[in-house]
Automatic annotation (TrEMBL):
The keyword Protease applies. Signal peptide: none annotated. This is Zinc carboxypeptidase. It comes from Anopheles darlingi (Mosquito). GO terms for biological process: proteolysis. InterPro entries: Peptidase_M14. Keywords: Carboxypeptidase, Hydrolase, Protease, Secreted, Signal, Virulence, Zymogen. The active site is at 279 (proton donor/acceptor).
Amino acid sequence: MAFDTSKLFQAYQSHETIKEYLDDLVQRFSTKIEIFSQAVSYEGREIRTVRICPDVKQPPRSPNNRWCILIDAGIHAREWITVSVALFIVHQLLEQDEISAKSFRRFEWIILPLLNPDGYEYSREHNKMWRKTRRPLGARNQRRSCVGVDCNRNFNVAWTIGSTRFCSLLYRGERPFSERETKNVRDLFRKLRPSCKFYLSLHSYAKTILYPRAYTRTLPRNWQMQQTIAEAGATAMLKATGVRYRCGSAATVLHQPVGGSSIDYAHDIEKVPVALVMEVASKGFHPPEAQIQRICEESWIGIGAMVNCLAANFRTTLKGSGTLHLR
């Protein structure tokens, strides 16, 4: 029986329902989508990443011409709306056939719609404000009263800035990539070298589009390009919906250094030219379900505009290896 998509964006979906939806898409759009990778969370949940392009059955293009976009969502468990936005991107590309748009079909879209499934399900079922993973902390032979690591403090860049307190919502982990969930993202970047040109991590709910760096106010050499792309998204959303996004470097906008972030890892370590956080405009982490569709549509306008800007104005960056002019 086909999956009923009519109510997909009328409610927040469970991890199991997301799996069913992706399975259905693979059946219905077998030439345009595949499960690109499949990891397992600490509690044993599948972490699926999909690859969408005009024909996934064709042999991959040469690395110099194969441009990829990597998008993830749900890195923080309580940010439910980001998972809906990621699913909406998949829905638009496939079910609305947006992958046929000229600028969109230049890319392979790699989408990780639920990065932290354990935390997400715990947030849905037990504690709405839960942020971290769900791995128990401390030695096995000791009472382990604290649980979880903030995935966005667990990447191997300026990691020492993060909190060392087990019970903190911002706990960085015992070491970089201590979590299966962040190792999975690291492995995705390694698979995509050097073709990944745009990394977008979806968060909520500050109405901002941020670029590196988060750990220092020292800007990367290509900050103006990233600012231009971020502003393209913000301008498109403002014109279409009246919602105003602020753009800038993460450390400047947040007014404090953040270590171990995914955008800094993507940019500084993996040499991805454009690495952005989009803090989706919503009413809190769990906006009313009646607003999900509207927020997803609004966010898609901004994301599409950023991709179009990258494709239209920065072809030299796309053709390059992604290793130049970043620092």
